[in-house]
Amino acid sequence: MRTCFYTHLRIAAGFGLLLVFVQCSKQIAQEKAAKNLVWSDEFNYTGLPDSTKWSYDEGNGCERPSGCGWGNNELQYYTAHRKENARVENGHLIVEARRESWKDRSYTSARLVTKNKGDWQYGRIEVRAKLPITLGSWSAIWMLPTQHVHGGWPADGEIDIMEYVGYIPDTIYGTVHTDAFNGMKGTQKTGSMFFGKNAQDFHLYALDWYPDRIDFWVDNTMYHRFKNEHKTNAEWPFDKAFHLILNMAVGGNWGGKKGVDEKHWPQQMLVDYVRVYK
Q1: How many Å from the N-terminal Cα to the C-terminal Cα in the chain?
Q2: Closest CA to 255 of 173, 158, 157
Q3: pTM for the whole thing?
Q4: Which of 55, 62, 236, 242 has its CA 20 to 30 A from that of 147?
């Protein structure tokens, strides 16, 4: 479809323009025919998230090699099977962060994963979501490998389809982490999309993942591309299955960079649907 658009700009008028419209129609039809839905959750039910599709990462992260706070010094405790933090109602998945004492933490939230229930190598991932805005919130739609074959993070790779921090309320980010390109080295490959005042509306956050590139989308705009340089696993570990993660953190190295507003909680990330195409 984008090829059609750019070709259209190069054609002035007349029969050439008509030909472009015909070519575009054929290309759009081919794209639609090739789009094969393989996994989805439309959230057209009520209660806890569908257990056949979603599991939970639970705890404060202290048991992980990256250390407490899930490697980012985050403040929340991720709960499991708790409607206060993750539930489906009115056609939406609600991921809710709350200010409340829970074990050794002052906040609770949820981190939902499709690991071993939805794992994909290449394809298109679409998540239509509405994001919260408060100082200290850190919402994310992202992917990690289901099997660790290169030695763990960051060598096994990470794909951040969307990250949004409350102290930058007009911009979302898409990032790729690998052994060569990662936050510890300051070499991560990041793109951003400026929304202005519309960041808190519902938007479609999407990823097109191919053997030679990964494209990041918001609605109908591609704002970032990461290319396979065809070198080593250090640059491109994205040749294996990854699973999807939806979470909302509180504070942390990035989310809490400007502090945490302790007054305006709970905060919610609403998800209208998740769809995966091959």
Answers
A1: 18
A2: 173
A3: 0.88
A4: 62
